[in-house]
Predict the structure.
Amino acid sequence: MKQMQPEYRTYRVWDAPTRWFHWINVLAVLGLIGVGLVILFNRDLGISLDGKITLKTIHVIIGYVFVLNLLWRLVWGFFGNAHARWRAVLPGGPGYPRAVRAYAAAFVEGHPQAYVGHNPLGRLAVTVIFLLLVVLAATGLVRAGTDLYYPPFGGFAAAFVAKPAVDPETLAPYEVGS
Ligand code: HEM
């Protein structure tokens, strides 16, 4: 008897900008974790104050790449292909609760439904990941401002800590005022 061969089809799912976002994000997060850990253990590693400031500056530069890349992806969610759009990423929309129940039931039975793009539960996971990335970006930018007086919040931080007679723009990180 002739055996049936499965029929395979190729689907173009993730568009180029979404792939670029993904891999730039991977590299930026790994870089931030790596340099962040060195900053965290700077004393144990015997790093000088100047070295620490340099590391923080490098961390913030990688942080800007991370933030800009994330902002780009948030905008691309309005223009990208059908799978990259928010409609296909965020949970909700007509029939979503039913789709989640059907997906979970099939998964538990051991026959997960195949989806092109994110499955209904995957959409929840991706949304949580995006929210966490936005929180990391926002808190990182605040720290860059308060710790190193870097934009976009550095100007406010410097104006807040500068003594009345001191021009905030002349403040340098870790400078001890008289
Ligand atoms: C995946 C994202 C990120 C991770 C995993 C991460 C990780 C870390 C770690 C482990 C530290 C050391 C904590 C400490 O010494 O208390 C740190 C510090 C710091 N991070 Fe990040 N970071 C991320 C994103 C960012 C971003 C986006 C920025 C800014 C653009 C940023 C700016 C800073 C600054 C300025 C510090 C020094 C803060 C201080 O010593 O007070 N980080 N980060």
Q: What stands out?
A: The helical segments are 16-40, 49-76, 86-89, 96-108, 120-148, 154-161. Residues 40 and 52 are 10 Å apart (CA to CA).
